[in-house]
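WP5 quarterly update. Target: Cupin domain protein. Source organism: Fermentimonas caenicola. Length: 178 aa.
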Amino acid sequence: MRKTLLILLLGTLLILGSCTQQTADRNQVESTVHETYAEVEFRDFGPEPFVFNIEDYTVQNETFRTSIWTGSNMQMTVMSIPVGGDIGEEMHPEIDQFLRVEAGSGIMYMGDEEGVFNFEERVEHDFAIFIPAGKWHNLVNDSDEPLKVYSIYSPVEHPHSTVHHTQEEGIAAHNHEH
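Structure tokens (predicted):
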């Protein structure tokens, strides 16, 4: 009887030790992942040459939209779409747009008429989206975390050094610009 209890006790200790080590290993990996992001400076570096870690900028961005590089023919912005939020239905008549999802997930909608979307695709981390000029589109965050994306416009869509802290600021600025 004592031998059986001793074996059970040792087995339990081994299992608990293994679980504790796995938790410690997982915490170390998570800690390492969070430490890998370098601190970034949010400003528009264009039109000067610029080389940077695009993921660091995208995942650390907390604004709805901030331009990181604006040239004469192309622009890159980072965006953070809050849980339950969206980019807002829009169309750029003469601008092709590229989006890449770095964190979160959502649904990309596109169509040829305002309010009529005949294209719908689920997107998540590492997905790329190409939006042709003249397509109505909207990206909706249906995840439980902010949707972190970067956007490349060609030609430029927003003024140099654009910062929109909220979607409302972005809409107001768009209405003022056009």
